[in-house]
Amino acid sequence: MITILSALVSLLSFRVRSRASLELELVALRHQVTVLHRQRPGQLRLFSADRLLWVWLYRVWPQVLDAMVLVKPATVVQWHRKGFRLYWRWRSRRLGRPRASTEIRDLVRRMSLANPLWGVPRIHGELLKLGIEISQATVGRYLPWRPKAPSPTWRSFLHNHLTDIAAIDMFVVATATFRLLYALIVLGHDRRRIIHFAVTQNPTQGWLACQMTEAFPWDTAPRYLLRDRDASYGSVFRDRIRAMGVKEVVTAPRSPWQNPYVERLIGSIRRECLDHIVIFNEHHLRDVLSKYFEYHHKARTHLSLNKDCLQPRDVQPPSAGKIIAFPEVGGLHHRYERRAA
């Protein structure tokens, strides 16, 4: 009895498979006829839907290759393999480490450019402290290219040592009798304050060394002194600076931009004062510079200090009174204050 039942089941399954095979073969043949009907004479053009149908038929019933007339069986197999690759490429598109957001990538680049001495671990640590969960390998992938040993610029050097740098420079002033006077300026970088100035007709090494002693008495000398390559700064001057514990930073030849703050100050002195005055003698020049520096410290506003003075001035509200002008530097400039009537 069991043998008869198993034989009946086998016969039924054979008939079902045969019926399904026949239907699939019929679908393949009808579709090929449809393709031939829509073609122009001498041309065979297949669409993606045609290829997908034949690939599906081949996957369901591999014997469909025997019914293929328009294309070779190897072509259908090739389409199937290509579809297999595209399918798994589509399935794998979301695998792997997720891509970081644009904000995080921009932040990593800004940190790297603003801190050339930082490596991947340091930047990764800062991101963790900011609550940004990201792997260290991802941070390294988004770092911009930069040299192995970045060199600090003059701007960064001056900014990092503002409180420890003083700059020195001299400029020439012609008198009414065509004599040349030399004015020395010592400028502090912290607030662009004129620490010391002096005027002479003959700037010798000994005179310059004495001016350094007067500018920095006792233990007030800065750590660095920025100067150019003027021949007046001879061995006597250098020995005095070395004895004071000051390290000289000498600019490159013909590079005034490397000592920008004192060069800008000298330009302001000429534009705002000396270009409008005829100097008679050494005493006159010293008096004019003294008045200008007092105006420069107490009244003149500066862009680098957010429009404030070297010695900060209080903001006076309109209720403080009427605006009154006070002449400065012999009337070349004025200081404005509010005074109660």
Supply the key terms.
341 residues; alpha/beta; Nucleotidyltransferase, domain 5; 3 domains; 5-stranded mixed β-sheet; two-stranded antiparallel ribbon; 11 helices; 7 strands; 45% helix; elongated; disordered N terminus
Characterise the protein shown here.
With 341 residues, the protein is an alpha/beta fold. It folds into three domains: 86 residues, no CATH class; 40 residues, no CATH class; 155 residues, Ribonuclease H-like superfamily/Ribonuclease H (Nucleotidyltransferase, domain 5), CATH 3.30.420.10. The chain has eleven helices and seven strands. It has a five-stranded mixed sheet, sandwiched between helices. Strands 6-7 form a two-stranded antiparallel sheet. Strand 2 and strand 3 form a beta hairpin. Helix 8 runs parallel beside helix 9. The longest helix is centred in the first third of the chain and has 37 residues. It is elongated. 15% of the residues are buried.
Any chance you could write out the topology, listing elements then pairs?
Layout: H1 2-38, H2 48-60, H3 73-91, H4 102-114, H5 120-129, H6 136-141, H7 154-160, E1 165-174, E2 180-188, E3 193-200, H8 205-215, E4 224-227, H9 235-243, E5 247-250, H10 260-272, H11 282-298, E6 322-328, E7 333-339
Parallel strand pairs: 1-4, 4-5
Antiparallel strand pairs: 1-2, 2-3, 6-7
Helix pairs in contact: 2-3, 8-9
Identify the strand order in the major beta sheet: 3-2-1-4-5
How much of the sequence is in beta strands?
5-15%
Strand count, sense and barrel status of the largest sheet are: 5 strands, mixed
Radius of gyration: 43 Å
Order of helices and strands: HHHHHHHEEEHEHEHHEE
Fraction of residues in H or I helices: 40-55%
Q: Low-confidence spans: pLDDT under 50, at least 5 residues?
A: 1-16
In terms of structural class, how would the helical and strand content be classed?
A: alpha/beta
Name of the top-level CATH class of the largest domain: Alpha Beta
**Helical region count?**
11
Fourth CATH level, the homologous superfamily of the largest domain: Ribonuclease H-like superfamily/Ribonuclease H
How many structural domains are formed by the residues?
3
**End-to-end C-alpha gap:** 129 Å
Q: What's the architecture of the largest domain, going by CATH?
A: 2-Layer Sandwich
Silhouette: elongated
Number of strands: 7
Average pLDDT, rounded to a whole number, is 82
CATH topology of the largest domain: Nucleotidyltransferase, domain 5
